[in-house]
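Reopening this ticket.

The earlier resolution said the output was attached, but the attachment link was broken on my side. Pasting everything inline this time so it's all in one place.
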Amino acid sequence: MYRLVAVDLDDTLLNGNFEIGPRARRALALAQEKGVTVTLATGRMYRSARPIAQELGLTAPLITYQGALVKDAAGEEYAHYPVPVPWAREVIRCLQARGCHINVYVNDNLYMRSLTPGGARYATISRVPVHVVEDVEETLALGAPTKVLAIAAPEEVDLLLRELAPAFTGRLHVTKSKPHFLEISHPLATKGRALASLAGQLGVPREAVLAIGDGYNDLDMLAFAGLGAAVANACPEARAAAGYVAGAAEDAGVAEIIERFVLEAD
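Inline output:
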């Protein structure tokens, strides 16, 4: 029944050790052998997601940066929705005024003003090099950023979300991917929209799409798919939006979902 499977990475396909367990790895391999197209749908940078896709043998376009950049592991770009420079400058200044750690992503490179503990942990998890610059706003001279991310305490992220989302309505997409990550991107850059576009390009009807996630930024992807499934450790909003919630968490939950709805299906 399901011909296209989109899987989130952090806290979904990747477990607490940022690894893919053998059961999930096997399920993904068997799904592909069955002719199912498998892709990743992540807030991560393309250069962070690509090695994982290569490791799994995925050839479909990858949904990265929350949907702002869709590009396959071979390097072919299908869509890119960067943040317009004037709005990027405005949001950076707003975040700087609040003392937030800021990541700016230009040309698939990561820039930050200083290697704070939050920034260092982010880079370690993502396995990407960091470019430390005196002023992140100056990176906008290199091009429009694919995304801007703020790292702060969960309560500060919630406060910023309530403030910035309405302030930038129609201009920017503002969401949180994790309790301490606030994501700012182009208004067309969402996982749900990117997945819908990819399904159309592949000729896969909506009802034949399976999406698996855990976070706030997965909600529109779960809503679009014929079946939106959540792993057991998903946030309450994702669990409520899902048509199926796995009994297992993280990579074991992904394996459970694929085994039940793809591998065991007639």
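Reporter confirms the inline version is readable. The mean pLDDT is 95. The chain has nine helices and 14 strands.
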